[in-house]
């Protein structure tokens, strides 16, 4: 597989932390340690990689997606109330969305560094990866949610359109949870194709196959609710039968990815069985689409992933794909059997709804 240069940004947000929480300050350092061990760094491979300077997003860049009131509340909560819980839901106590004193600034830096990755991709032939936290795909226009303060991928999508004058943006979200915030922000927008592969009936309860957009955006939201136990074969089958034809029909100017690694079988939160090799397969397939459709413009943004081993292996395999290397892991043939019939039923339903086969 042909490869190019990878431009990556790193925002570990060490101050944005809550003891015992899944989304904690150890996540990005664990990834960085694994990348260093595998020599997947700009220092080890300067001809294939470069590390970007991080920057904070401006108020205008955030407010292309979020309200000024949301920004003001997040800034005030960090300055006056932190450490505090800013959004809770009916789940375990350590699944709350929290604010530490540095969280507002960290969230601005995360979003801005995603935009730096976009700029790097637009400036040349590089692919981009923003290793950032806090994550973003649950955050809505007016609210934080699900560990997320600002919706990084949505901010990046609007930035592609407003700063770089790209008309059509495709977003793929392969986090185990449904990106309800991203869906809501673009639900009536036909300039953004949003495809979300997530666990069926998982928190936050959205993402059903019949959620397809409305108004001008009718048909440009595609949900693929994967049955419990879906693994490597199911993920790649869904990509080939749904993601690929839908993206080719849409013909985007850029492809953005909410890259969550919590669908891995080792992750503690949900019940999909992706493997480390699955992420190599997904990212290499996305590269091929980007090269064919949009001059190679492809940017990944880190979302979930809460087992440090599977998170690190997934990111390392994504890096390998992006620079044209080989997968670091073989497909495990001894993995639990996948619910093949249920997977085929879901895929066939989505294909029929969106008329993806002639």
UniProtKB/TrEMBL annotation:
Pfam families: Hist_deacetyl. SUPFAM superfamilies: Arginase/deacetylase. InterPro entries: HDACs, His_deacetylse_dom, His_deacetylse_dom_sf, Ureohydrolase_dom_sf. It comes from the Eukaryota. Transmembrane segments: none annotated. Residues 21-321 form the Histone deacetylase domain. PANTHER family: HISTONE DEACETYLASE 14, CHLOROPLASTIC, HISTONE DEACETYLASE HDAC1-RELATED. This is G6803 protein. It comes from Coccomyxa viridis.
């Amino acid at each position: 597989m042909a490869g190019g240069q990878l431009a990556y940004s790193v925002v570990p947000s060490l101050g944005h932390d809550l003891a015992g929480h899944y989304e904690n300050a150890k996540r990005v350092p664990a990834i960085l340690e694994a990348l260093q061990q595998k020599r997947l760094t700009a220092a080890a491979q300067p001809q294939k990689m470069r590390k970007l300077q991080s920057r904070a997003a401006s108020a205008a860049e955030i407010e292309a997606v979020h309200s000024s009131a949301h920004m003001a509340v997040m800034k005030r909560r960090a300055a006056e109330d932190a450490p505090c819980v800013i959004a809770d839901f009916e789940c375990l106590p350590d699944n709350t969305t929290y604010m530490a004193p540095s969280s507002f600034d960290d969230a601005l830096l995360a979003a801005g560094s995603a935009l730096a990755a976009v700029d790097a991709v637009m400036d040349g032939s590089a692919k981009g990866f923003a290793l950032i936290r806090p994550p973003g795909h649950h955050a809505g226009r007016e609210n934080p949610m699900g560990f997320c303060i600002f919706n990084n991928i949505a901010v990046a999508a609007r930035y592609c359109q407003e700063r770089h004058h790209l008309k059509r943006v495709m977003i793929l979200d392969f986090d185990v949870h449904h990106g309800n915030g991203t869906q809501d922000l673009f639900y009536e927008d036909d300039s953004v194709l949003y495809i979300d592969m997530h666990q069926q009936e998982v928190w936050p309860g959205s993402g059903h196959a019949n959620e397809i957009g409305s108004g001008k955006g009718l048909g440009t939201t595609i949900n693929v609710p994967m049955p419990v136990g879906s693994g490597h074969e199911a993920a790649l089958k869904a990509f080939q039968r749904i993601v690929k034809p839908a993206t080719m029909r849409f013909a985007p100017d850029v492809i953005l990815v909410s890259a969550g690694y919590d669908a891995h079988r080792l992750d503690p939160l949900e019940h999909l069985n992706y493997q480390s090799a699955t992420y190599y397969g997904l990212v290499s397939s996305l590269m091929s689409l980007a090269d064919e459709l949009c001059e190679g413009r492809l940017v990944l943004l880190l979302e979930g992933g809460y087992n440090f081993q599977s998170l690190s292996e997934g990111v390392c395999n994504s890096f390998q794909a992006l620079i044209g290397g080989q997968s670091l892991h073989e497909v495990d043939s001894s993995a639990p059997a996948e619910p093949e019939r249920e997977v085929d039923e879901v895929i066939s339903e989505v294909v029929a709804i969106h008329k993806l086969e002639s």
